[in-house]
Design brief:
The chain has 404 residues and is mainly beta. The protein contains one helix and 34 strands.
Amino acid sequence: MKTPLIAALVVSLLLFRTSPAEDWPQFRGPGGQGHSAERGLPLRWSETENITWKVPVPGLGWSSPVIRGEQIWLTTATDDGRSLRAVRLDRATGRIDVDVEVFGREQPDKIHQKNSHASPTPIIDGDRVYVHFGPNGTACLAADGKILWKITLDYDPVHGAGGSPTLFEDMLLVSCDGAETQFVVALDKNTGQIRWKRDRNGGRHSYSTGLVIDVGGSPQFISTGGDKVAAYDPRSGNEIWHSTYDGFSLVPRPVFGHGLVFVATGYNTSELHAIRADGRGDVTATHVAWTLTQSAPYNPSPLLVGDELYIVSDSGIATCLDARTGKQHWRQRLGGGFSASPLFADGRIYFLNETGEATVIEPGTDYKELAKNKLDGRTLASLAASGRAIFLRTDSHLYRIGVP
């Protein structure tokens, strides 16, 4: 091998090893759609293979880990849901540096058996962290755990809090869909004061996390709720368009691409709708490009990779569709029940079921399984990726999974 070629390979390897880690600042990553730019991630792992560290997390929470620099943040609930807490861990060691009670309650809410008292995922923005516990409170914390502001949003989510907030410019956008009251609200991220609030009463309860998209150079905040999905101007709160369906208790976060918003419609029979995002007013009859009525998810969010849309049903049936037309490429039973949303990273798709088993596949119009990996514990939180590592939360521990 020629010397210049050796030198070039050495430089490339050094750049790869020293390139800065991509942050994972919110639910489903930088763009909110389950994509990571990280490379060098592990394909295989177990309790004895490719585990950098495994640390116990106090209490129980199904919020996903969020990461900025050397900080990892989670929310959790201790004392059977009476103490709602924010926890900061060191990424290198997994050591808990901050463990602060944000809200305390004398009597915890009733929740669904698959929910927790700390399910919404935090958001990291610079040196601040935003945590949300549904009607029990929303707060902003400094990096050292000092609480900077708090606010309580009044609604009844029926089965406990689920949806995570979304950050846009200097506002925190939150969908609040309870049994009797449904609204979308924008909070000033510096003060917690309400900037705008839009009622959407008449629907049913829901738990979805919104998504900010760009349509022709203009932002839209896509928020799924009971019986309809709506697009709002995130600066004013004015509705741009909406599409109706028969569904409630929505959990999946929408995804966007090819001019289409992909929305799961929830219970009692979930469908997947692909809706063109360039409409105005009621677009139900004019802008639904295609609909999937079989094996649509109730909990896991869709994943768009290139021209293909990937979904996994709660019963473990994965489906690959042509994103533009809805044509099915393949369908495969993965095994187990699913709540976590899939991850696309390092050229692979990672599906995590509820009993610690991850199925890794190669994207494409033919099903190609690369690995199955098993860890201990119950796993309903979605994966995060940063710094050549995958972060996986169980009902008792947080794992950093990485190649040595």
